[in-house]
Amino acid sequence: MKYLEAEPDEALDPGLRADLLDTWVAATNAGGAVGYTAPAPTAEIAQNLDGALGRVAAGLDVLGVLHVGERYVGMGMLVTRSSALQPHWRTVLRVMVHPDCQGQGAGRLLMEGLRGSANDLGLEQLQLTIRGGLGLEDFYGPLGYRVVGTHPRAIRVASDDYRDEIMMVMDL
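Above: the chain sequence. Below: its structure as tokens.
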């Protein structure tokens, strides 16, 4: 398994898109906190993925992918903010690994690759948000992220199930 930073023209590769869509749908259906709940709304995810890949193709965002053989099995993004006052940091977004590859260090490899990409860009800080109640702080904490805030009940995963959104930051 290896981390790659996708070039803007690679974001238009239909094979990359198909593999990342498969990963996103599979991660959602396995209970992953990747923007949706099971059962995965494939058409909505495809639309969201196309928008994200368009931003990469335009050179606005960085896409990091995990590659195993001929297959892409994970992704994460460094998303640019449009403010001229915030060029020194990025938001880490859409971090996911195909369920078939979880438990093998793939998530750590992906996050280390994104950190390396951030260092290459000369960034000073990375920020991400996680869904509360899943113990994700235990994954991101050892990677250097610290909790800096919580938005109580910001995420509604079901009509009677609200979760906090937890903001974490890492200084580079």
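The chain is about 30% helix and 35% strand.
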